[in-house]
Specification:
By secondary structure, the protein is of the alpha+beta class. The chain is about 45% helix and about 20% strand. The chain is built from 4 helices and 4 strands; from the N terminus they run E-H-H-H-E-E-E-H.
Length: about 100
């Protein structure tokens, strides 16, 4: 197991996305999103290789992985370090990922 260390931007993303779902669908939807997002991140801690490296390769960041939040159009982006997961962002699929992640290392 490698514990997740979320960067401040990733923490802010989680708050922002949760607020978005609160505004869009109410308390139940926001709670379901938050719980699912945290659960997915815990799964990545248990199995760091679960995230796909494809988007990392596309944006030119070796080792960057993405694991999707089940049922929601977004995902966690992280780098696997020797002793932890460096959680960079939680981004919606429709965002300009290449622009946002361009200076992530």
């Amino acid at each position: 197991m490698k514990p997740a260390r979320t960067r401040p931007l990733a923490e802010g993303d989680l708050v922002e996305r949760t607020r978005h779902y609160l505004d869009a669908g109410g308390t139940e939807l926001a709670a379901r999103f938050f719980e699912t997002a945290v659960s997915v991140l815990r799964s990545a801690e248990e199995m760091p290789g679960i995230g796909s490296p494809v988007l990392g390769e596309i944006v030119g960041i070796p080792g960057l992985r993405r694991v999707g939040v089940d049922g929601f159009p977004c995902g966690w982006f992280y780098l696997e370090r020797s002793d932890h997961l460096d959680v960079v962002r939680l981004l919606a699929d429709r965002q300009d990922l290449e622009l946002i992640l361009g200076d992530t290392t």
